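Second attempt. The first submission of Site-specific integrase had a stray character pasted in from the spreadsheet, which I only caught after the job came back as garbage. Lesson logged: always re-copy from the clean sequence file. Corrected sequence (467 aa) follows.
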Amino acid sequence: MGQEGRSFGSIERRSGYFRARYVGADRQRHDAPHLFSERIDAEHWLGEVHRSISREEWRPPVKVKGRPDDLDTLAGYARHCLAERELTPRTREEYGRLLEKLIAPTLGAIQLKHLEPDRIRRWYSTVLSADRPVQRKHAYSLLRSILREAEDEGLIDRNPCRVRNVGKVRRTRDIEPATPAELNKLLDLPPKQGLPVLLAGWCGLRSGEVRGLRRRDLDLTEGVVRVRQAVTRTKGQVHVGAQKAAAGTRDVGIPPHPIPYLAKYVAALPMTGRDGFLFPGGDGVSPMSEKALRYAYGKARKVIGREDLTFHDMCHSAASLAGMTGAPTAELKAMMGHATAGMVERYQHATRASRSRLAENMSKARGDLRPVCATRSSGGRSHIPWSSGVRIGSLLRLKAAEGVHHGTAALRVPGPGGRADGDQPEDPASPDRVRSAPGLLQRTAHPARPSGGRRRHAASVLAQLSP
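This time the job returned cleanly.
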């Protein structure tokens, strides 16, 4: 940081940009409303201010309360954007925190038109901590969305947010989902402790969704829980409102075995009408607090012997257990309230049982027996010759991930031209394989790429094998 002395005003260098300051006719120090990318621009601006003071035309800058900051600067425009967006209270609070704590202190005073990709990259690599990857990703995503709006409005020619590899955040820990046997132990707990956790572990409801349930949302005749609202807390205020995303509003099937337990609990509730909360707080009217739910969950996880799991991990358990039944991705998305298949994948994890079953199937597949797999589309049995580009491990991982476990899971997909059943297997070192794609295959380690025809053919056969 350096400061240049001048006959009028001063120019200070700050992280590659220049800040102009001066003492006005009111004998108070004033800053320019934004930073300058070039020193000459700051000098020109100070010259204009000096001339206006000399001509007695200068007026001290006045900031009107409630008026947005200068919309030419990033901070002013960002605050204006967030004020215009329809956001839940919790999201608005979080976006405001990211803006004021991480974005505005470094970039806020810069004019939109002077924001450059190099400056954004420096901010991303130096200001945002790599030790907090989720916060880092959210702050960058917020900035990118704000500047996308500026681009759409023609305020900038192109969005300068071009940092590469800002993608999926790596998990900091592995989650071992709760098993059905562990979840069944919840039935031995007092209902107000066990039921909220049970709805998370079997139905995938989050903390705010569980606490926001009303009696009318539980249909035990149909075996459905209707997720229509969630509880959030911001700055000491409790809010009960609609879901943040449209996909979050959903109907989720309840497994039959806990329904009698739920019915007994509902029958014992005080008569406060169908709009009463399913899990009321201490006053019997407001929803259960987050603190009360944490206390209940603390008791529950000791009983089931899984103190390594957080309450939100129960949602991961629900997605994993549902996936192992063979539920297709569309059903899992609907159950969990996710808009994309990628989010479903993030919530699914292998269990000890599924890993053991996978290893057993791989062991069975090591011999020379011809693999056979039932195709659900035809109801018959299709012989898949051992002759083309889908490797055993890929298909095993595929079927394990999708929850479909065939007794003889070692499969190979024939090439586009097909081969006779008597053909010999190809060389294991063959480069043929199917490329990785979400919901299809995991990549196998071979140097060359298969032909487009072989990939398309393999994908079509896999589609027939999918549930």
